[in-house]
Design a protein that fits this description.
By secondary structure, this protein is α+β, with helices and mostly antiparallel strands. The chain is built from four helices and 16 strands. It folds into two domains: about 110 residues, Immunoglobulin-like; about 100 residues, no CATH class. Strand 9 and strand 10 form a beta hairpin. The protein is elongated.
Protein backbone atom coordinates (compact mmCIF):
# COMPACT_ATOMS: atom_id res chain seq x y z
CA UNK A 1 0.00 0.00 0.00
CA UNK A 2 2.85 2.39 0.79
CA UNK A 3 4.24 1.85 -2.70
CA UNK A 4 0.85 2.74 -4.23
CA UNK A 5 0.68 5.94 -2.16
CA UNK A 6 4.17 6.95 -3.29
CA UNK A 7 3.31 6.30 -6.95
CA UNK A 8 0.07 8.26 -6.62
CA UNK A 9 1.91 11.18 -5.00
CA UNK A 10 4.49 11.17 -7.80
CA UNK A 11 1.81 11.23 -10.51
CA UNK A 12 -0.07 14.06 -8.80
CA UNK A 13 3.17 16.01 -8.40
CA UNK A 14 3.97 15.70 -12.11
CA UNK A 15 0.42 16.71 -13.04
CA UNK A 16 0.62 19.78 -10.81
CA UNK A 17 3.96 20.72 -12.37
CA UNK A 18 2.57 20.39 -15.92
CA UNK A 19 -0.45 22.52 -15.09
CA UNK A 20 1.80 25.19 -13.62
CA UNK A 21 3.95 25.46 -16.74
CA UNK A 22 2.93 28.11 -19.30
CA UNK A 23 1.33 26.78 -22.48
CA UNK A 24 3.71 26.55 -25.42
CA UNK A 25 3.09 29.23 -28.01
CA UNK A 26 1.88 27.91 -31.35
CA UNK A 27 3.81 29.50 -34.18
CA UNK A 28 1.59 30.92 -36.91
CA UNK A 29 1.63 29.12 -40.23
CA UNK A 30 3.89 30.87 -42.69
CA UNK A 31 2.07 32.44 -45.63
CA UNK A 32 2.65 30.31 -48.72
CA UNK A 33 3.63 31.94 -51.99
CA UNK A 34 3.99 29.63 -54.98
CA UNK A 35 4.54 29.80 -58.72
CA UNK A 36 2.76 27.32 -60.97
CA UNK A 37 6.15 26.10 -62.28
CA UNK A 38 9.80 26.17 -61.29
CA UNK A 39 11.02 26.81 -64.84
CA UNK A 40 9.51 29.04 -67.51
CA UNK A 41 10.37 29.57 -71.14
CA UNK A 42 10.95 33.18 -72.12
CA UNK A 43 7.73 35.23 -72.50
CA UNK A 44 5.58 32.47 -70.96
CA UNK A 45 3.00 33.63 -68.35
CA UNK A 46 4.11 33.24 -64.72
CA UNK A 47 1.28 32.60 -62.22
CA UNK A 48 1.98 33.62 -58.60
CA UNK A 49 -0.42 32.54 -55.83
CA UNK A 50 -0.57 33.65 -52.18
CA UNK A 51 -2.38 31.19 -49.89
CA UNK A 52 -3.38 31.89 -46.30
CA UNK A 53 -2.58 28.79 -44.24
CA UNK A 54 -3.16 30.51 -40.87
CA UNK A 55 -6.38 30.43 -38.82
CA UNK A 56 -6.75 34.20 -38.98
CA UNK A 57 -7.01 36.78 -41.80
CA UNK A 58 -3.75 37.49 -43.58
CA UNK A 59 -2.97 41.05 -44.60
CA UNK A 60 -0.42 41.99 -47.21
CA UNK A 61 1.24 45.18 -48.38
CA UNK A 62 0.91 46.61 -51.88
CA UNK A 63 2.52 46.22 -54.26
CA UNK A 64 3.62 42.63 -54.75
CA UNK A 65 6.94 42.58 -56.58
CA UNK A 66 9.30 40.42 -58.58
CA UNK A 67 13.06 40.80 -58.20
CA UNK A 68 15.89 39.56 -60.40
CA UNK A 69 19.05 37.89 -59.09
CA UNK A 70 20.62 41.31 -58.45
CA UNK A 71 17.78 42.27 -56.10
CA UNK A 72 16.34 44.77 -58.59
CA UNK A 73 12.55 45.04 -58.81
CA UNK A 74 11.41 44.29 -62.37
CA UNK A 75 7.62 44.10 -61.89
CA UNK A 76 4.96 45.26 -59.41
CA UNK A 77 1.30 44.47 -58.93
CA UNK A 78 -1.20 46.21 -56.63
CA UNK A 79 -4.47 44.74 -55.37
CA UNK A 80 -7.73 46.57 -54.75
CA UNK A 81 -8.52 47.37 -51.09
CA UNK A 82 -11.37 44.84 -50.96
CA UNK A 83 -8.92 42.02 -51.81
CA UNK A 84 -7.07 42.60 -48.52
CA UNK A 85 -7.07 40.76 -46.13
CA UNK A 86 -6.99 37.13 -47.32
CA UNK A 87 -9.34 34.87 -45.36
CA UNK A 88 -8.36 31.49 -43.92
CA UNK A 89 -7.74 29.04 -46.78
CA UNK A 90 -8.27 31.75 -49.41
CA UNK A 91 -5.85 32.75 -52.17
CA UNK A 92 -4.85 35.70 -54.32
CA UNK A 93 -3.38 35.02 -57.76
CA UNK A 94 -1.42 37.25 -60.14
CA UNK A 95 -0.29 36.32 -63.65
CA UNK A 96 2.84 38.09 -64.88
CA UNK A 97 3.67 38.22 -68.60
CA UNK A 98 7.45 38.55 -68.00
CA UNK A 99 7.57 42.18 -69.09
CA UNK A 100 9.02 44.84 -66.77
CA UNK A 101 5.91 46.64 -65.52
CA UNK A 102 4.07 48.44 -62.75
CA UNK A 103 0.45 47.28 -62.56
CA UNK A 104 -2.32 48.97 -60.56
CA UNK A 105 -5.31 47.41 -58.80
CA UNK A 106 -7.59 47.94 -61.80
CA UNK A 107 -5.29 45.94 -64.09
CA UNK A 108 -3.75 48.92 -65.86
CA UNK A 109 -0.02 48.36 -66.39
CA UNK A 110 2.79 50.74 -67.21
CA UNK A 111 5.21 48.62 -69.26
CA UNK A 112 8.84 49.48 -69.81
CA UNK A 113 8.84 47.40 -72.97
CA UNK A 114 10.21 44.05 -74.04
CA UNK A 115 10.68 41.10 -71.72
CA UNK A 116 13.04 40.30 -68.89
CA UNK A 117 16.13 38.21 -69.80
CA UNK A 118 16.70 34.61 -68.68
CA UNK A 119 17.81 34.18 -65.08
CA UNK A 120 16.72 33.66 -61.47
CA UNK A 121 13.69 35.55 -60.20
CA UNK A 122 11.83 35.84 -56.90
CA UNK A 123 8.24 36.92 -56.28
CA UNK A 124 7.84 38.65 -52.89
CA UNK A 125 4.77 39.59 -50.86
CA UNK A 126 5.09 41.39 -47.52
CA UNK A 127 2.54 40.19 -44.94
CA UNK A 128 1.98 40.78 -41.23
CA UNK A 129 3.74 37.44 -40.64
CA UNK A 130 6.77 38.46 -42.69
CA UNK A 131 7.73 38.20 -46.36
CA UNK A 132 6.54 35.30 -48.48
CA UNK A 133 8.75 34.30 -51.43
CA UNK A 134 8.51 32.12 -54.51
CA UNK A 135 11.64 31.48 -56.58
CA UNK A 136 11.66 30.41 -60.22
CA UNK A 137 13.83 30.35 -63.36
CA UNK A 138 13.28 31.86 -66.79
CA UNK A 139 15.17 30.31 -69.67
CA UNK A 140 14.94 27.89 -72.57
CA UNK A 141 14.98 24.11 -73.16
CA UNK A 142 17.55 22.67 -75.56
CA UNK A 143 18.16 19.17 -76.85
CA UNK A 144 21.82 18.13 -76.82
CA UNK A 145 23.13 15.55 -79.28
CA UNK A 146 26.37 13.53 -79.28
CA UNK A 147 28.42 13.04 -82.45
CA UNK A 148 29.91 9.81 -81.08
CA UNK A 149 26.45 8.44 -80.17
CA UNK A 150 23.93 9.83 -82.69
CA UNK A 151 21.06 7.71 -81.34
CA UNK A 152 20.86 9.40 -77.92
CA UNK A 153 19.72 12.84 -76.76
CA UNK A 154 20.02 14.83 -73.53
CA UNK A 155 17.74 17.75 -72.60
CA UNK A 156 18.94 20.78 -70.62
CA UNK A 157 17.27 23.95 -69.36
CA UNK A 158 19.56 26.98 -69.69
CA UNK A 159 18.80 30.01 -67.49
CA UNK A 160 21.64 32.44 -68.18
CA UNK A 161 21.27 35.08 -70.93
CA UNK A 162 24.63 34.42 -72.60
CA UNK A 163 24.18 30.65 -72.59
CA UNK A 164 20.67 30.90 -74.05
CA UNK A 165 21.84 33.22 -76.82
CA UNK A 166 24.83 31.02 -77.69
CA UNK A 167 22.77 27.83 -77.68
CA UNK A 168 20.12 29.33 -79.95
CA UNK A 169 22.87 30.33 -82.39
CA UNK A 170 24.46 26.89 -82.28
CA UNK A 171 21.09 25.19 -82.79
CA UNK A 172 20.65 27.18 -86.02
CA UNK A 173 24.24 26.73 -87.25
CA UNK A 174 25.05 24.28 -90.01
CA UNK A 175 28.60 23.80 -88.70
CA UNK A 176 28.33 23.07 -84.98
CA UNK A 177 31.66 23.68 -83.25
CA UNK A 178 30.66 24.31 -79.62
CA UNK A 179 30.40 21.65 -76.92
CA UNK A 180 27.87 21.89 -74.10
CA UNK A 181 29.02 21.80 -70.47
CA UNK A 182 27.33 22.07 -67.09
CA UNK A 183 27.44 21.07 -63.43
CA UNK A 184 26.08 17.57 -62.81
CA UNK A 185 22.91 17.44 -60.72
CA UNK A 186 21.78 13.85 -59.93
CA UNK A 187 18.07 13.09 -60.13
CA UNK A 188 15.54 12.51 -62.87
CA UNK A 189 13.63 15.53 -64.19
CA UNK A 190 10.43 15.72 -66.21
CA UNK A 191 12.16 17.47 -69.08
CA UNK A 192 15.02 14.93 -69.22
CA UNK A 193 13.22 11.67 -68.38
CA UNK A 194 15.63 9.27 -70.09
CA UNK A 195 18.45 10.12 -67.70
CA UNK A 196 18.92 10.09 -63.93
CA UNK A 197 20.88 13.33 -63.88
CA UNK A 198 20.91 16.69 -65.61
CA UNK A 199 22.94 19.90 -65.87
CA UNK A 200 22.24 22.69 -63.39
CA UNK A 201 20.36 25.39 -65.38
CA UNK A 202 22.55 28.34 -64.36
CA UNK A 203 25.84 26.46 -64.88
CA UNK A 204 25.57 25.73 -68.60
CA UNK A 205 28.27 27.19 -70.86
CA UNK A 206 29.59 26.47 -74.35
CA UNK A 207 33.17 26.21 -75.58
CA UNK A 208 35.18 24.63 -78.40
CA UNK A 209 37.91 23.10 -76.21
CA UNK A 210 37.76 21.49 -72.76
CA UNK A 211 40.23 19.70 -70.52
CA UNK A 212 40.05 15.93 -70.67
CA UNK A 213 39.21 15.45 -66.99
CA UNK A 214 35.62 16.63 -67.45
CA UNK A 215 34.92 14.56 -70.57
CA UNK A 216 32.75 11.46 -70.37
CA UNK A 217 29.85 9.76 -72.11
CA UNK A 218 26.32 10.23 -70.73
CA UNK A 219 26.21 6.53 -69.86
CA UNK A 220 29.42 6.79 -67.84
CA UNK A 221 28.22 9.85 -65.93
CA UNK A 222 24.87 8.20 -65.24
CA UNK A 223 26.56 5.11 -63.83
CA UNK A 224 28.81 7.25 -61.58
CA UNK A 225 26.49 10.23 -61.10
CA UNK A 226 26.97 10.44 -57.32
CA UNK A 227 30.72 10.78 -57.86
CA UNK A 228 30.09 13.46 -60.47
CA UNK A 229 27.69 15.41 -58.25
CA UNK A 230 28.67 19.09 -58.27
CA UNK A 231 31.42 18.54 -60.86
CA UNK A 232 31.52 20.04 -64.34
CA UNK A 233 30.71 17.65 -67.19
CA UNK A 234 31.96 18.62 -70.67
CA UNK A 235 31.33 15.81 -73.18
CA UNK A 236 33.60 16.53 -76.12
CA UNK A 237 31.20 15.07 -78.70
CA UNK A 238 28.20 17.12 -77.51
CA UNK A 239 26.48 19.81 -79.58
CA UNK A 240 23.23 21.78 -79.52
CA UNK A 241 20.90 19.70 -81.66
CA UNK A 242 17.79 21.90 -81.49
CA UNK A 243 15.82 24.42 -79.45
CA UNK A 244 13.19 22.75 -77.30
CA UNK A 245 12.65 19.28 -75.99
Amino acid sequence: MSHMKKAFSLVMGLLTLCLALPAAAVAPADPQLTSDRQRYRSQAPVTITLMNQADYPLTFENPWRIENSEGETVARFSWADEANPVGQGDTRTWTWDQSPNDCSSDGACTKVGGYVPPGRYTAIVETQDGPARAKFLIGEYFTVGFKSRPHIEFVVFAAEPQAVEQMRSEAAAADKTMNVSGIVRPGRTRYNPDWKFTMAPTSIILAEVWIEVCDGSPYYVQKHRDEWRGDRWCPWSSYVKRVGR
